[in-house]
Amino acid sequence: KFYKKAALFVLRAIAKHSPELALIVVQNDGLETIVECLEDFDPGVKEAAAWALGYIARHNKSLAQTAIDAGAVSLLVLCLQEPELYIKQIGASAISDISKHSTELAQAVVDAGAIAFLAKTLTNPDAKAKRQALLALSSIAKHSVELAEAVIEAEIFPDVLVHMAHPDENVGRVSAILTREICKHTLEGIVQLAIVLQEETEDHILAVTVWAIGQIGKHTPEHAKAVAAANILSKLLKLYSNPKSSEDLRTKCNTALKQVLQKCMYIEALEPLLHDVPLNILNEDTIDFSKAVEKLAEGLLSICQPPLEQVRKELFELTSKQEALLAQMQLENKKIHETIEDIDLNDMV
């Protein structure tokens, strides 16, 4: 086993530097050896093999596909089921290295049943295991709506949102990344966050949910409209105004409301808030009604474009005539002044 671990370490050290070196390892039957070692009974050999496999697969899609063709994915899923924590960690990392490249590779990982075991790994108290599992789920979910839905079906929410507040900042960061990768495909993710907001009672879960809503709504008017249309703004205001809410929750509600309102052009959602939103949230910098009205005016202009074009043309002609008349009047005035000056000079003579 010591020889195997040493050999796997050498293969990993060679493959990690570049795709070209990793390809040399593959072409010299190094990948087959690594996959065989994934079936070894010794946990240390399994760990070294999974590590080497990840270093090969992470370079590009072609090498990751080669790893799948060699039968590595099913063995990596078995690594997630091992009792040794370090094997779970490296197994999840290698799965992430494979699935990150394309939809097809991620689908192969899903077909091998990896999502259920990655979701189970999230319940492990170890921060590194959580981080690698979250990263692997992110690498799967980022490719398409279908893969994101497959991740959601593993019932990882609202636990992922709770992990945003994890003491380990890396776990919190990767949790936010996973939430982003799921939500970016469609605005329907807002509906799920609205449900969490409605049903949850724990302040720390509500706080991270509110934070996620703010991060989504702050990007574009379309994102802000999706938040407003889901009737989330009134819920945020209610949580902010509730004296029983924690200070952290109130702060996040305040920030989320400002982030969404700054982008929101959805007048129907803004109007009911005018009488209820505190002045520290609703100010001239928060909601730019001029932009909302301008956008509405643009819509009306597009409807009335033909007659308005005619009106513009006529106004332009009238303005041109007015300018010509004004120029002529100025010229006549100049001539009159010159005549008066000539008369005055003659009188003096």
Description:
With 349 residues, the protein is mainly alpha-helical. It has a domain of 154 residues: Leucine-rich Repeat Variant (Alpha Horseshoe). It contains 21 helices and no strands. Helix 1 packs parallel to helix 4, helix 3 packs antiparallel against helix 4 and helix 6 packs parallel to helix 9. The radius of gyration is 33 Å and the shape is elongated. GO terms for molecular function: microtubule binding. InterPro entries: ARM-like (IPR011989), ARM-type_fold (IPR016024), Armadillo (IPR000225), Snapin/Pallidin/Snn1 (IPR028119). Pfam families: Arm (PF00514), Snapin_Pallidin (PF14712). This is Sperm-associated antigen 6-like protein.
Q: Can I get a quick summary?
A:
The chain is mainly alpha-helical and 349 residues long. Helix content is 76%, strand content 0%.
Query: What are the low-pLDDT stretches, counting only 5+ consecutive residues below 50?
Result: 284-290, 299-304
The string of secondary-structure elements, in order, is HHHHHHHHHHHHHHHHHHHHH
Give a quick account of the main beta sheet: strands, pairing sense, barrel closure: none
Number of helices: 21
GO molecular function: microtubule binding
Protein name: Sperm-associated antigen 6-like protein
Pfam families: Arm (PF00514), Snapin_Pallidin (PF14712)
Topology of this structure?
Layout: H1 2-15, H2 19-27, H3 30-37, H4 43-57, H5 61-69, H6 72-80, H7 85-99, H8 103-111, H9 114-121, H10 127-141, H11 145-152, H12 159-163, H13 169-183, H14 189-199, H15 203-217, H16 221-229, H17 232-241, H18 247-263, H19 267-270, H20 289-303, H21 305-348
